[in-house]
Amino acid sequence: MPEIEFTIDAETGKLELHVKGIAGPACDDVARLAKALLGEPVQERQTAEYYLRPKVRPQVRPKGGQ
Amino acid sequence: MSKYLVFDQICFPDRQLLLAALADLGYREVEEGEALPLYGYQGDRRPETAELVVRRRHLGPASNDLGFARTEHGYVPVISEYDQRVLHGGRLLPKLRAAYSERVVAAVTRRLHGTARRTVEGGVVKIKVRF
After folding, report:
1. Which of the listed residues A33, A59, B16, B45 has the most CB atoms within 10 Å of its CB?
2. What is the reported pTM?
3. Looking at the partner chain, which of B108, B127, B131 has a beta carbon nearest the beta carbon of A34?
4. How confident is the model at residue A29 (pLDDT cuts 50, 70, 90)?
């Protein structure tokens, strides 16, 4: 299940954000939403999962089907 | 993990979330307008203007107006050195940033139709949002 983990340092107000469980650039949509509300991050990096291709289940149509 | 971001600057892009964060800190009376004048603790007009203003009567007897000026990236605080040192024990801006961040998390949770689980350990708040 996709998850975002926010960590807020109450002393400084600094916010860290991890987007987890979304393979591929789909997580950019989540990052875009966060940036719209928070501004440009001072640090941003893709982690290993980012480069995985999302799983797509092949669909096979029966012969003669519409 | 697929993406990691760190937000560390004092700029508040969303007006409504900033107003909500100010209310969380007890500042519910906020003037809104264009280039509103700011006044010092003696009633003297200061050279700066702002689009959101908490008047000094809501802050403290020796405080100046607290403003937020709109820039292309969002609202930035216009705050005197005195008020930075005194308001909320000298921690107004970190507290405001933390309150704003919590409001952002709530907004993101709503938009993703997710569920949030919040834990606090020491001075660190962790919120996990599943969607």
Report:
1. A33
2. 0.86
3. B108
4. confident
List of residues 6+ apart from B116 with CB closer than 8 A = B105, B106, B109, B127, B128, B129
Is the minimum CB–CB distance between B20 and chain A shorter than 8 Å?
no
Q: Cα dist. A7→A56, B25, B51 in Å?
A: 32, 20, 30
Which residues make Cβ contacts (< 8 Å) with residue A47, sequence separation at least 6? B1, B2, B3, B4
Beta strand B31-39 pairing with B45-54 = antiparallel
Interface pTM, i.e. ipTM: 0.86
- Interchain contact, A18 vs B3, CB within 8 Å: yes
Tokens 């892009």 map to which residue?
B13
List, in sequence order, every beta strand (DSSP E) within A1-66: 3-9, 15-20, 43-46
